[in-house]
Structure formats: C-alpha cells, structure tokens
C-alpha cells in the first residue's frame, strides 16, 4: 500500500482558455438601413480578451484574479460561469454561485421577494428552500423596510446588497465573485469582509476578481495576474500585488519579473537597506531589548521637493508589525536634486518577538498616495533573537505580580 496521500481533484480547472470577440466596423442601427442595403457586407475586427490562460483551483482555496481594466478578469469569470463560450477547456466540480454583475438575473418590475425566490430557483434550490431562506436574505441585506418595493425603485447600493445576500445564502461549492467591493457604503463593505473571512475559514472554494491589492493579500491563498488577456504571474498574492503595481506604473511585465524587489516610477531608488545595533554596527541579528536603527540609502534620479519616506517591518507572515514615516516628524523633508544620495534612518527600542523580519521601504512624492517613486521589498531581512517567544507580535516589558488576597479584601475589591 502506498504511503502517499492522494491529492484531491481540483475544484476548477482552466486549460488553454482563449476568448475572442468580433467587433463590427460598420453599425446598422435600423431596419430601414438593412432594407436599403441588403447586400452590404459588414467587416469585423477581432479582439482577443483571453489568450491561452491555464490554472487550477484546489477545493477550499481562495483564488484571486487581478489585472488592470480590460485585462480579461471578468471575461475569465464569465467563461467559468458558462456565460461566454470559449476556446479551451474548463471543468468545475460542484454547484456554482455567481456574483458577477449588478442586477444580473433580477427582474426590476418585481419586488425583492419574487426576485430572491426566482434567483434561488435558478441556483438550484427547491421552491420550499428558496422561500425558507427569503427572510435571512432580506435581513442580511438590511432591506426589511423595502421588501415590497419593486427593484426598479431600489438604489444601486440596495440592489448590490440584495444580490450579494442571495449569492452567499446558496449552499454553493464554488463562488465566483467580481469586484464586490466596488459598490456599497463602508458598512456594507465591512460586512463583505466579515463574510469573506467566514467563508475562507469554512474552506469554501472562491474565485475572486479585484483591483484592491489589500483585499487580494488579505484573503487569497494564491492569485493570478492578467495583462491584455495573457498570464503574467501566478503564485503568492504579495508577488501578484507587487507586479500589478509595477504594471500600473508603466513598466513592462518582463522587466517586473526580472526585478521584483523594486516598484515605482523610478524617480528615486533605494540603493541599500540595513540594520545597526545600539553600537552603530551593521548586523543581521539583533537581541531583544536593544535599541536598533533601520537605515535606507536612497538615490534621487530627478529633482524632488519634500518626499515622504516610510518603512514597514514585516514578519514571516508578511504582516506589518511596525510602521513609521518621515511625515510624522517632519512636515517638510527638504528639496533634493538629481544625483543626491540621502540616508533615511528610523530608530526604536527592539520589542519585536523573536523571528525573522524584512523591511519594506517606500518613497513617495509629497501628498501623493500611490504616486510612489520606489517600493523596495525582499532585498534584506534580519533576525530578532530572544530567550523565548511569548506568542505575540511584539514582546513588551510587562510587570507581573502575584499577591495573596484574603476573603475580606477580595469582597471589598469586587465591590
């Protein structure tokens, strides 16, 4: 008998999937035009939305698909859902629940109850089960006051809450979700986060299309990056997020793959990052309790006024356990010209838990959010040593006392 454990079959497989659309060069808008020119030939241009895309999603995996507008993300999801026919092969093992476009499958002239039941039936529920789940759908969508209102009188936010609530109430094996956070207020978005966390913990298979790189890294086990219909990278969400940012800054995907430690527009570049102990010596290991300094040596390629430098200390799970920036200390950091080399230093007491850490350094133009000159990561790491890990992200000095209290004092304290 073989001792190897058999791997479960994938929940979704896409093999060499391609999708091409035909776009007519001449538009015929009326029946009169067609009647007057019955033999006019209409020429077409072809647009390839997907080009030989292949991947597999394991059962219970939260799989992300990222890419810029027009990269083929939503087209890929619609091919998986069976909305589009495509070249190649797609297999899905289990019932699908789709949340692809706002209002798809809704009849705007019907009230919420009729739409909820009708969508439940289309997703494979029995009429009794669809009716039974109606109350929980309306309650989650927070539409109790509008249950008898026709959907054409709903706002877009109300419609998206109803559609999302219907999608998650179905006991689907595989969920396809496209840009769910693009619509809705902050409270609804937080509700989506809570649901995603619960579904992820329950081991649901989810394919999630998004522009939000924070959501991609927060929820997804793996991710796929598409650009102009072609695969750029498939792997860890943090790597996909980095390459997505690079492509948005205009760099070629092949160049991104060759230099994954840097991202940004190139107006500045981090030349070196290191750690110094309390004696000012470079080191790769810092004991707990000592004061340490993180230094970043930066070369400016253009003239820059008041740039902002930030540093994120990431643990082995890629979670930021410390964040610091120049903006908190200096309202204006100064003017630097092309060719200047500048040293940014961040000093703090080392209360980090024992383990390995990697600094992430960003340089941005003043007052700019994503206008990043350089984003340097994974070029350096250091170790924090200690007697024993307490289990937290940091080990703060804590005074511990044990004091015996007699019964009378205990009653007085409780009162």
| Biggest sheet features | 6 strands, mixed
Rg, rounded, reads: 28 Å
Annotation, overall tally of beta strands = 21
Shape descriptor reads globular
Query: DSSP strand (E) fraction?
Result: 25-35%
Low-confidence runs? none
Q: What count of helical segments does DSSP give?
A: 11
Distance from first to last alpha carbon: 67 Å
Mean pLDDT: 79
The structural class is alpha+beta
Strand order of the largest sheet: 5-6-7-3-8-9
The level of helicity is 10-25%
Would you kindly provide a brief summary of this structure?
With 415 residues, the protein is of the alpha+beta class. The protein has helices at 31-36, 73-81, 112-122, 127-132, 134-141, 156-169, 186-201, 213-219, 237-248, 253-258, 407-414; strands at 12-24, 44-57, 62-67, 87-92, 96-99, 174-178, 205-210, 222-227, 230-235, 268-276, 282-283, 285-287, 291-300, 304-305, 308-314, 320-325, 335-336, 341-349, 355-364, 372-376, 382-385.
């Amino acid at each position: 008998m073989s001792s190897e454990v058999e791997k479960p079959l994938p929940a979704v497989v896409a093999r060499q999937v391609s999708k091409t659309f035909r776009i007519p060069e001449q538009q015929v808008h009326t029946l009169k035009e067609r009647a007057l020119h019955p033999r006019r030939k209409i020429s077409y241009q072809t647009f390839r939305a997907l080009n030989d895309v292949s991947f597999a999603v394991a059962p219970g995996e939260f799989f992300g698909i990222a890419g810029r507008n027009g990269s083929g993300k939503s087209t890929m999801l619609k091919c998986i859902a069976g909305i589009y026919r495509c070249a190649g092969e797609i297999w899905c093992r289990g019932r699908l629940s789709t949340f692809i476009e706002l209002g798809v499958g809704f009849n705007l002239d019907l009230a919420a109850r009729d739409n909820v039941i009708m969508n439940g039936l289309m997703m494979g529920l029995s009429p009794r089960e669809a009716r039974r789940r109606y109350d929980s759908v309306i309650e989650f969508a927070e539409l109790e006051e509008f249950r008898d209102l026709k959907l054409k009188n709903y706002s877009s936010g109300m419609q998206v809450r109803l559609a999302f609530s219907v999608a998650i109430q179905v006991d689907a094996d595989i969920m396809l979700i496209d840009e769910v956070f693009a619509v809705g207020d902050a409270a609804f978005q937080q509700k989506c986060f809570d649901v995603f966390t619960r579904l992820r913990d329950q081991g649901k298979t989810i394919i999630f299309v998004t522009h939000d790189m924070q959501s991609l890294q927060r929820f997804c086990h793996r991710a796929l990056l598409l650009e102009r219909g072609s695969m750029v990278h498939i792997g860890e969400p943090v790597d996909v997020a980095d390459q997505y940012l690079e492509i948005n800054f205009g760099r070629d995907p092949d160049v991104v793959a060759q230099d994954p430690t840097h991202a940004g527009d190139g107006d500045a570049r981090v030349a070196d990052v290191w750690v110094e102990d309390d004696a000012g010596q470079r080191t790769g290991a810092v004991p707990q309790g000592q004061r340490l300094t993180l230094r970043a040596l930066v070369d400016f390629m253009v003239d820059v006024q008041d740039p902002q430098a930030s540093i994120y200390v990431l643990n082995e799970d890629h979670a930021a356990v410390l964040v610091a920036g120049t903006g908190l200390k200096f309202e204006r950091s100064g003017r630097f010209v092309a060719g200047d080399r500048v040293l940014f230093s961040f000093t703090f007491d080392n209360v980090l838990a024992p383990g390995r850490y990697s600094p992430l350094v960003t340089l941005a133009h003043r007052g700019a959010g994503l206008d990043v000159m350089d984003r340097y990561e994974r070029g350096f790491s250091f170790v924090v040593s200690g007697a024993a890990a307490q289990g937290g992200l940091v080990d703060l000095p804590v005074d511990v006392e044990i004091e015996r209290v007699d019964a009378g004092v205990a009653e007085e304290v409780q009162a």
